[in-house]
Amino acid sequence: MRRYGALQAEALAAVARRLVAPLPDSPVVLDVGCGAGSMSVPLVSALREHGGGVLVLVDATPELLDAACAAARAEADGAVSVKPVLADLAAEDPLTFAGPVELIWGSRVVHHLPDQLRGVRRLVSALAPGGWLALAEGGLETRFLPWDLGVGEPGLQDRMAAARAEWFVSMRENMPGSVRLPVGWNVALADAGLGEISAFSFVVDHPAPVKQQVRDWAVDRLTWLAEITGPYLHAADRAALQRLLNPSDSEYVGAREDVFLLETDTVHLGRRR
């Protein structure tokens, strides 16, 4: 998570400044599902530039919450109050631990909830009147491999993207209490009671040749994709993945000069009336 966050840092800093700019003085900002703090640090920096405020970090994993809190407090330099809260967004308890909030940020969190619309409504209920909800959900498929790798058939990443979509459908179907959300995020935010709905996208771009940090991330990413898509792929593709993930192989992703990172994420915004 930290490696990935470092690669996104510049883009997330710009997003944080954009989200914090319209907030009132000394706002309360909630980073829900904060993970290891990829967005927590940019939010603290933006709040510090804004004149101060409170950042509430929420995650269900103590180790991740501790890491995010330590990184955010180091960036805060006393100008921003950082408050960690161990909580699960999937729980039924009301989000009353932060008081009225001027901005809630959630990245790739809501789609893990059984009832996504209900989760969005819970977040909306924690907003102060006029407060903003910003959800980073969706965008374009992350690209990091050339089309023809010289291993297996060309187009491996495209086939993995299709397999990942199958895996996601299965994951959602097998989730206890799962409820479909058969609309786009703009409609979901409106159904949750928000107005002034909009969206914008940001790009993370590390073209080849890249630093080793990007190659290391590519190994992490490909390892995860191989795990979740394996049952949906042809045996030849699984064999190609074994070579790409083998440090002793000449085609090892972690040593290739043609690895890159190109990602486009979309942030969906709505304001509580």
CA gyration radius, whole angstroms: 20 Å
- Kindly report the average pLDDT value: 94
Q: SS-based structural class?
A: alpha/beta
**Could you give a short account of the major beta sheet?**
7 strands, mixed
* Global geometry: globular
Based on DSSP secondary structure assignment, what is the total number of beta strands? 7
For the biggest β-sheet, the strand order reads 3-2-1-4-5-7-6
Helix content: 25-40%
Termini gap: 35 Å
The helix/strand series, from N terminus to C terminus, equals: HEHEHEEHEHHEHHE
Low-confidence stretches: none
Hey, roughly how much beta strand do the residues contain?
15-25%
Number of DSSP helical runs: 8
Question: Could you characterize the architecture of this molecule?
Answer:
This protein is 40% helix and 25% strand. The protein is of the alpha/beta class and 273 residues long. The chain has a 7-stranded mixed sheet with strand order 3-2-1-4-5-7-6, with helices on both faces. Helix 2 packs parallel to helix 3 and helix 5 (156-173) packs across helix 7 (212-229).
